[in-house]
Design goal:
It contains three helices and no strands. It is 89% helix and 0% strand.
C-alpha cells in the first residue's frame, strides 16, 4: 500500500510538472507574439499579459492561451 501511494504521488507530481512546462511554453509563445507585434522587450510583454489578465479578471495563462490561439487563426 505504501508503494502504491508513493507511485500515485509520483504520477501526480509528473502530471503537475508536465502541465507547468506546457503553460511555460504557452507563456513564452504569447510573449514572443507580443514582442514581435509591438516591438517590445520580454519584460514589457509579460507586464502587458499580466495587466490584461488583471483587467479582465482572468489568469495570465488563460490570456496567453487566447492570444496564441488567435495568432494561430490569423497566421
Amino acid at each position: 500500500i505504501t508503494r502504491f501511494h508513493m507511485f500515485q504521488r509520483m504520477r501526480a507530481e509528473l502530471a503537475a510538472t508536465k502541465l507547468a512546462l506546457e503553460e511555460r511554453k504557452t507563456l513564452d509563445r504569447a510573449k514572443g507574439i507580443l514582442m514581435k507585434a509591438r516591438g517590445i522587450d520580454e519584460d514589457a510583454a509579460y507586464a502587458l499579459l499580466r495587466k490584461t489578465a488583471m483587467d479582465q479578471g482572468r489568469k495570465v495563462i488563460d490570456v496567453a492561451q487566447a492570444l496564441v490561439m488567435a495568432a494561430g487563426l490569423l497566421a
